[in-house]
Specification:
4 strands
Length: 89
């Protein structure tokens, strides 16, 4: 494996990130956190469907309501897929 190139201060390295990642914290054993890394970035707790926005989404209230429901549903599918993959290993 080649040594990692040093990051230049004026030119940050851009990572390819997935749409969702799992977040885990032993202080919150019952919670299931999914971090959404595309706009609008947020953290979704699948235990209670709470959403903590990391950046404010734009749109009217009805559009946001639909967007939140879609994000929670997509996060839930992601979590189910990940758990299935863990159980296969």
């Amino acid at each position: 494996m080649a040594p990692r190139e040093e990051k230049k201060l004026n030119k940050p390295i851009k990572m390819n990130l997935p749409k969702f990642i799992l977040g885990d914290n032993t202080d919150y054993l019952e919670d299931i956190f999914i971090v959404h890394l595309e706009y609008p970035r947020c953290i979704i707790n699948l235990l209670n469907d709470e959403v903590e926005w990391l950046e404010e989404p734009e749109g009217n209230e009805s559009e946001l309501s639909v967007e939140i429901a879609e994000l929670v549903e997509a996060a839930s599918r992601f979590y189910d897929r990940e758990m299935q993959r863990y159980s296969e290993d």
